[in-house]
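We close this part of the discussion by returning to an individual protein. The amino acid sequence and the backbone structure tokens for this protein are reproduced below:
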Amino acid sequence: MNKFIRLIVAVAMLFPCVASAQKADITGAADKARSSAKFDTTKKWDIGGPLSVTFTQTSLSNWSGGGENSTGLTALASLHANYSDSNFSWLNDIELGYGFTKLEGAPLQKTTDQIEATTSVGYKIFDHTSLCFLTNFQSQFAPGYTNSADTTILSKFMAPGYLVISLGLDYKPNKDLSVFVSPASGRLIFVDNQALANLGDFGVTPDVVNNSGTIVTKGREEKTEFGAYLKGNYDHTFNKNINFTTELELFSNYLKNPQNIVVNWSTFLQLKFSKYLAVTFNTQLIYDNTINIPIYKNENGINTLVSNGPRVQFKDVLGVGLGFKI
């Protein structure tokens, strides 16, 4: 399973590199023949994006209002490295986020956890429109639990992991806005954790077990979907001090319940007040009909499962700390 995952991810994410190298080989001879033309990479590459690190600390001593000592840290990054010439483009984006809080006497509890990388190769066929091959990978860094005292894993790296492989059209009227549409895309779901796979979480097939506990039919830790995919991205810097990025992804699985559209919408806002001081605000909204969200009710210190099913997920992170723009 692990070898299969690594192979698929490596091939999909490295394909644009191969395409880029082939394009360079094809055009290399023509470029050399033009002795008067000089290749200036600084004008063809657009590299940058905001980074932020926010630290919080609370220390209490004989405090009548109550409370607990705590520390917290959140790091966010929204980076891009885009290459383009008259007809060819290679666009790369990565969204990373990790944050935690630590209450005195309690285990560390993460507050945000995100890995998303997108790379695409396109060739212009119309004004502002390119035929494009795109891959998108999403997962997380660390295991996730219902609360800091829980030992039951809800998710971890590659459980789930998502990989979209897609061929379609990319509309890019300017350097800030990009809209990719594909009527034919493959979406692979990985659950590299047997316990989560056996629960059927994230849409994979669980093991079938008889009354004696023997596995009758082995389940799967991966699932393949085929459908339509849309990815829109807007990234703009206002007055060099305000950076706003928003990204929307939609996927409809032709093979099962195409009306249940998978939604992943994230935003990142950075407001700089000095060279290094900034306020950041990050949100993410997810809806995926294959992800079951458990709801618990606490009675006398005991968590009881009330319901388990798909729900709208929403997260927002507000922080003040170190902010950079590269």
